[in-house]
Give the backbone structure.
Amino acid sequence: MVNNESLENVVLELRRGVIVLAALSQLGNEEYGYSLLKKLADLGLEVDQGTLYPLLRRLEAQGLLESVWKLEESRPRRYYVVSAEGKKLLPKLKKEWAGIVSVMDKMLA
Amino acid sequence: MNLIDRYVAEVGKHLPLLKGREDIEKELKSTLEDMLEDRTQNTGRTRDEAMEIDLLKEYGSPQKVAQTYNPHPYLIGPKMFPFYLFVLKIVLTVVVSVMLVLAGVQAVTDTPFMGADFVKIIGQGLGSALSAAIAAFGNVTLVFVILERVLSDKEIGGFDDEKDWDPASLATEPDPDSVSRSELIFEIVFTFVALAILNVYPQWLGMFFFTGDEQVFIPMFTEKFFQFVPWINVVLIVEILLDIYLLRNAIWNRLTRLGKVVIEAASLTLTVLVVRTPGVIGFSAESFTNGPFQPEQAQVFVTIATYMFPVVMAIVIIIQSIELVKAVYRLFKMSGKTA
């Protein structure tokens, strides 16, 4: 019998693999960290803040995202959006993902 | 400074020293404010310290939050770790070997073969070797920790020889013809130290005694022994050259196996010649009596030296004979395999 902890760890690993694609796919328009977090949760992907924020910084360092600070409701917010390079990469990632889903569907059928 | 500000400042303290540290703090504060605003709207409660405490507990300890931004969670990363271990093994082998040899030389030359001083010097030598090993370990580790942090990911990737690995190398390095690098380095260090002592510091080969202000030195060997030194030098130098060649090639071939047989045979021949030459040992009743000893004590030392020399030389000859037999066996085994 698989214990809950093992199940949680495997699910966590599976989710971790898709967060990059999920974040890039939802940043066609500017979002700040917390709004992206809520957007992903509303779509059914719960992501920990401790995972998302460092990931956004890493993607920006890789040139796939751009960010800008804006002052809203007397509060500064950092907005992220997919960069030109990220836009080029996204269709390729989507294709890869479709391939993975197709293969896994066959395996799990 | 409210609770949120104190929390953000605490996270900042634990953040790694990377660019955009202030950005991270600013973004964290903004996120926490957004989350608190969400909670007030969803629950209808007004914001208070209890709500902030609940949120911060959920968000996690400042150390844990800061750690998520650490791009180098390792002291030495997995790409550099194998090379670190390789360097560490070499440095520790060399440092410990040199310290032990120095301690051995000091124990033999500065004191009689037995007694409290001898034990004390051996103890001090082992202590020094341990201290030197710990210091070397610390220094090598420190250098690699700094390299891990100052080199770019691409440069660190250069330490990973996974890309250059060729399965064909398995076929060219079959056991037992592959060489042991650590053994070779150990042998080179010891042979070099032996060369240095025989040629540069022959005065270390003996015993020192202090009688008042006067220093008395009793040499372990006579001039007759030093007539053999040029021949011993040739064998030791050829052995170092062979070891360096093997270190570079990483594999034994028939020529190097043959070379090893010649070196072992020459070493054994030289040892036998030294043993068979009368009067090579410098310790005599007369030399000890001139030192700070009574005639009875001197006689004890001479007896010990007289008995010890053949025993030590017999052990050396046995070891050299075994090494020669092993070298010949490996040469024939290799010839049989390739024939």
Notes: The beta strands of chain B are 206-211, 214-219. Chain B touches chain A at residues 20, 23-24, 26-28, 30-31, 33-35, 59-60, 64-65, 68-69, 71 (CB under 8 Å). The longest helix of chain B spans residues 295-338.
